[in-house]
Amino acid sequence: MIDAFVEYIAVEKKYSPRTVSAYADALNEFAVFVGEDLSRESVTRLTEDQVRDWVLYLVEVKHNAPRSVKQKLAALHTFFKFLLRQGVVGKDITRRVQPPKVDKPLPVFFKRDEMVAATAYDDQADDAVSLRDCLIIEMLFQTGMRRAEMVGLQDSDVDTGQKQVRIFGKRRKERIVPIGDKLCDLIERYREARGETNGTFFVRWKKDGTCVPLTVQSLYKVVTDRMGEVSTLKKHSPHVLRHTFATAMLNNGADIRTIQMLLGHASLAATQVYTHTTLDQVMKTYQMAHPRARKQHTNNQ
Question: Are 79 and 228 in the same domain?
Fold first, then answer.
């Protein structure tokens, strides 16, 4: 049943190859633990206690991190939902099993002066590679898109006339994100310097001069190199620029539902983490700025 499930989430549900691989590994790991092959016959013999024992084994014996255990349990839960749909089992034995609590760190983001420094030379860029690299930073900051979404952009997705970008997110869910005049200008300059492609928006150039689609790894290097020059953060990834976009929107008055839509979050809970980031920043600013909030120092004569 594992093979049928893997095909289902890859083809019908359109999960990413990385998620498909992780789910398959988790199910095979569970199969080894319970000593079953997870065939149509054997899955009907599995119990809720076996699932609980597996979770305890992952935590106490294998010392898996809570986040890893949660992901593996999610794979097993999705597997049993599939089995229910197929009529193989009569109940989901994973439904009441709780994963270990995961402490969710607050997202980090680049400061305003760091973004100013990172984009200070955009106007001076005049060759295709420089324009592309400037555009990558500016587009991530203005749209909050994921790196995989960016490398998947097609020329037809980027419309400077309507000042918008069409983005295909997880499971090919489509959303439209507006863009500003500066970004539109940079896009047109990049297109002119880049020339025609086979439809791919972002490209890289091989040694023989031919262009091929930009890879996730190449995009990651562009961002980490540029942001590493201007920021003291330990992380300089494209995802930090996504956090920076969301935080800037929230700090400047955007409502949480709009930010959810722009980020392509399926759940509002995923977006609400930014409200905690903003509140934390507000508290720090208050502590620094308000005279009654600062610690009072007295001199003992």
Answer: no
Q: What is the pTM of this model?
A: 0.64
CA–chain centroid gap for 78, Å, is 21
In a domain, 98, yes or no: no
Q: Is 170 an annotated catalytic residue?
A: yes
Q: The domain containing residue 200 runs over which residues?
A: 112-287
265 is a catalytic site residue: yes
- The reply to whether 76 and 181 lie within a common domain is no
Query: Is 175 one of the annotated active-site residues of the chain?
Result: no
pLDDT digits (tens, 9 = 90+) for 90-120: 999 999 998 888 766 777 899 999 999 999 8
Taking phi first (over 0 means left), then psi (-120 to 50 degrees means alpha), and beta for anything else, what does residue 146 get? Answer: beta
Residue 247: inside a domain: yes
Verify that 69 and 127 share a domain, yes or no.
no
Pick the catalytic residue from 146, 194, 226, 243. Answer: 146
The answer to whether the beta carbons of residues 214 and 147 sit under 8 Å apart is no
Active site residue 239: yes
Question: Per the residue annotation, which of 170, 175, 204, 235 is the catalytic one?
Answer: 170
Q: Single out the residue of 263, 102, 28 nearest to residue 167, CA to CA.
A: 263
**Residue 85 is among the residues annotated as catalytic for this protein:** no
Active-site residue, 146 included: yes
Catalytic residue among 111, 204, 235, 239: 239
Task: Give residue-wise pLDDT tens across range 235-292.
Answer: 899 999 999 999 889 888 888 899 999 999 988 888 887 776 666 666 666 677 667 6
Residue 91 lies in a domain: no
Residue with tokens 């119990």: 47
